[in-house]
Amino acid sequence: MIVLGKFNELEILRDTSVGLFLGDDEGTDILLPNKYVPQDWEIGDKLSVFCYLDYDERPVATNLVPYIERNSFALLRVEEVNAIGAFLQWGLEKHLLVPFKEQRSKMVAGQSYVVYCYLDPVTFRLVGSNKLDKFLDNSTAKYEQGDAVSVLVTRQSDLGWDVIVENQHKGMVYQNEVFKPISVGDTMTAYVKLQREDFKLDISLQPLGVAVLEPAAKQVLDLLSAHKGFLPLHDKSAPEEIKAYLEMSKKVFKKAIGTLYKNRTIKITSEGIYLLEA
After folding, report:
1. Looking at the 3D structure of the chain, how many domains does it have?
2. Its pTM surpasses 0.70
3. pLDDT given at position 210
4. What is the DSSP string of 51-67?
5. How confident is the model at residue 213, as a pLDDT?
6. Which residues contact 166 (CB under 8 A, 6 or more apart)?
7. Residue 11: which CATH number?
8. Which of 187, 197, 186 lies closest to 166, judged by CA?
9. 148-156 and 187-195: which strand pairing?
10. What residues of the chain score a pLDDT lower than 50?
């Protein structure tokens, strides 16, 4: 079956004046227009193509790679807003429509939004929505503390940053636990801090527990080396100073310098930290 909004592995069936017709094992075919036909091909070859509806609402294949696929989330830029809705650039000739009813607030041309791409069950068109919560389900989330997960940053609030976890669950990174610049649309590896009884997920951008000590200690050591063996930081330094230098919390910093001190790698004074010679 040819799946719209996804890449399909299809066989070249025949050559026509408008392009190649590709088909699946069920006898369904789709046009790959001439402008997307590869230079070298033969009848029977298999091609990986993305399938969607063209301007005339006809199924069509392309070898262009979209910024988003069906049933996934991505940050996309609004190219135009008209009476129908907002049209977003997603790497294909025909823009992705986000109807007004699928906009959390009215979208503005030139701005970027995290959206979800899905197949409308009524029109069978691929459309977008930035009412993200209705596409997320935490009831199926099963994580252990410390699990590494992929996250997409979607929104900033007074509490912190909303993130989408593994393309299906909603999580929160609290503002006071963010120690590096992040923006809406960023994707990164993060860590499950807590899965609550109501299935809400607290997410950390840093590894938890013992796992954070080694990289944090190395980070301090590397910065010491880059600053001629001295940093004007110590266990009494303000959290803001530590964050500015190292993008880590004071708690993690104290554990890191504690590890280095026990290993007799550094000397801690009221002025700061000195790197000891080996």
Report:
1. 4
2. yes
3. 55
4. EEE-TTS-EEEE----S
5. 61
6. 149, 150, 151
7. 2.40.50.140
8. 187
9. antiparallel
10. none
